[in-house]
């Protein structure tokens, strides 16, 4: 076991805290795991523990450094958390029934095996595999630490006593209370809070409470509660609450703390049928469920940090002794909770960034402690740190102003933009990000601002608005500060959609490159033949998959005008996982037998986004195929034919899928048509044999079915828009409409066919109408100004695309 030879820890010493050191065991027992602690919480039990001369702390989270010979569920580099319960016999009636916390041979905090000095207020912790818990990826170590005891205690009590729809009363908004409110509300209960302080009402409602009453007069309650959670450091005045007007008959009393005598009045207990349900801590299974639930529903404790030292711990314990827990952290989050003791700076990087006004400042600097080893030696990073720091970044006032009306704009986004670019989880966005008690830090604020931006319709003359500039500069600043997260990546994608949709060049091309590199830094570009992990967080894994596919799609669409230009994303391999069906995605359901890869034969069951991914892959193959002939390589007519047939087959399937769902402008179809046009035009320019023959790419476009499909989509879109149907067309059809219009224009000049002119007029109408929403429509539309000449006009008609705003 290669680790430090000495463990530094903090233990109780007759009522005080003492720093001690002891030798690290030379070997681990078969089921033991060595964890390097990065975060450890404090709770009121530690106040009692300082009298027992044992290492303090039982809310620890850290990185696995070494494992015993029989450990199978953890590996070096995993994040693990240790709770109050640390071992049991494994074979008594309690252990066999899952109630291992009642085992007579249990090993719990304070009673724990002192030979291992197993407390979490130390730089290392040795735990048993069975009683260590994996931390979900979306749950930060800082938030996970207090949940190891406080969260597990509260969640277990609620699971045992509360049913969805019941009215749950919570007495106290301290360390346990504020978690009880969040958990109960997310479980579907109606939460009623009783507090001795009136100014706690706003906090209580922010956590999810629907009613608030002062504890001195709980009789004002409008309807009795079914369960009473006593979450304070001491027991409440039972005489005030044990009344069938407050606690309904057959109600359940759940004390979460261990006060002195409960002194329950016997008469109401008997005549109203009340029962008491004690809860020590969660079982192993319930503990794991709690972590997944907290991660999925964004249940977050609030945090105040202290130095990991004798003085720091005593200061934190002093606050706990004073009024259980009710103080604030230094990151502007105003929720009371148990104290969190942070490790020294050597164990965790941080970053402090000062607020800035809107606009650029040449004389300001940004500091960051992002671990450079993440890029310089990734294997060493995985073996040592294995977790990116949580960057503290003050949201600039200018950006904060751009997140207003996010509730209404989110509805617009999921109704109009999400159907053709469904990479955000509707469930996570509505239930987690829009939750009133989700801290709105930089990452969420950037995403909200970009949702608002992409839903906005810029004026006729300017698309590079002040809002756009604030967002773009903040994204750059976040990158410099070392902020690397999925939410910022999603914000980048939405910015690219805005730039592409409004023809903001060369910014769109540069942004998609930055976006691709950002996603690669997150590890999203790594191909894996396996599907998402079998956890309740499969939605988060799917969201990452969809985000990367969104970049691939935008990257290829962006380069339609010049397929020789280098793509920013590599070509997906055959076993790359496709997005799941869109209906399942929006409903939060998944069928494992419907997990497709790029090599799976195409089917309407793949859904629109899955077919878009297939179309983008084919478009990428077309671009790579055409790029091979830059240096005069012999053109392969056979390969071009294979690609055309594959695209035509995908169009048939995409149209079938769109028809089944009542979709007129099916985005996969549009991407396929764009790929076929690109192949036809550039095959002509690169193949000498075609140039010397009578081959005409415009005729190929018209007679090969591309124009027919485009005109059908065009007529459907115009009918919907002119009828003022609340439906939005994406920017994707506009490129195809443009090239189809140019083909009709050239053929009209050559043949003077009025039918071509009629088709041209319809395409002009589509581009003009869509220009009201996406300015790329107007950038592409200059057909009425072209010279009346019979020469080939592709280059001339492109000129308006390069005009500035």
From TrEMBL:
Domain Enoyl reductase (ER): 15-325
Short name of any one Pfam family annotated for the protein: ADH_N
Gene Ontology molecular functions: DNA binding; oxidoreductase activity, acting on the CH-OH group of donors, NAD or NADP as acceptor; zinc ion binding
GO BP of this protein: DNA-templated transcription
Cofactor(s) for this UniProt protein: Zn(2+)
Keywords linked to the UniProt accession: Metal-binding, Nucleus, Oxidoreductase, Zinc
Protein family (similarity comment): Belongs to the zinc-containing alcohol dehydrogenase family.
PANTHER family for this protein: ALDEHYDE REDUCTASE
Listed name of the protein: Enoyl reductase (ER) domain-containing protein
